[in-house]
Amino acid sequence: MTAVKTAIPWGFLLLIPALAAAGGSGFALAHGRRAGLIGRKIKRMPLIAANGILVLIPAAFFLAFKARAGEFDAVFYLLQAVELFAGAMNIALIGLNMRDGLRMAGRLRARPG
Ligand code: HEM
Predict the structure, then answer these.
(1) C-alpha torsion sign, points 24, 26, 32, 38
(2) Ligand 1 — pocket residues by CB below 6 A?
């Protein structure tokens, strides 16, 4: 448990640049267009970023700190529940951006059915 919790913040070293690169290359491919699926992808980005910066990153550092101190108390588990929820939300939002990107690139059918 402690090993996992202290390892998670190191993952940010890879995760944050990767997300920034995905967003940056997306904006480059968009060539200033803001309509349709691109617009929906753009609107998800501030939610993804806010979730990460305001909830996930502080939660991961706090939980790693608590785990190292051996403090597996009610605050630890409550914050971990919040973290899991926010994490699920971000995976869903990133997954939707991936789906819309694949659709625009013609690698998925435009509509199900
Ligand atoms: C979490 C962020 C994002 C993820 C995971 C993501 C994912 C993807 C994926 C998987 C593709 C398909 C690439 C291919 O198969 O060739 C794609 C293409 C694309 N994405 Fe994103 N994207 C993200 C953010 C953005 C943003 C912020 C924008 C717009 C500002 C954007 C605009 C585009 C455009 C224009 C394409 C190219 C579609 C085409 O080939 O016609 N993406 N994206």
Answers:
(1) negative
(2) 19, 22-23, 26-27, 29-30, 38, 41-42, 45, 48, 94, 97-98, 101-102, 104-105, 107
CB 56 within 8 A of CB 86: yes
Nearest CA to ligand 1 atom 11: 101
Q: How far is CA 100 from CA 38, 44, 61, 66, 106, in A?
A: 8, 11, 32, 38, 10
Q: What are the structure tokens assigned to 77, written together?
A: 């588990």
Q: Is the dihedral of CA 49, 50, 51, 54 positive or negative?
A: positive
Classify burial at 63, counting beta carbons within 10 Å of its beta carbon; exposed 0-12, middle 13-18, buried 19 or more.
buried
Ligand 1 atom 17 nearest Cα: 101
Contact status, residue 48 vs residue 88, Cβ threshold 8 Å: no
Q: pLDDT tens-digit profile of 29-46? A: 999 999 999 999 999 999
What pTM, to 2 d.p., does this model score? Answer: 0.94
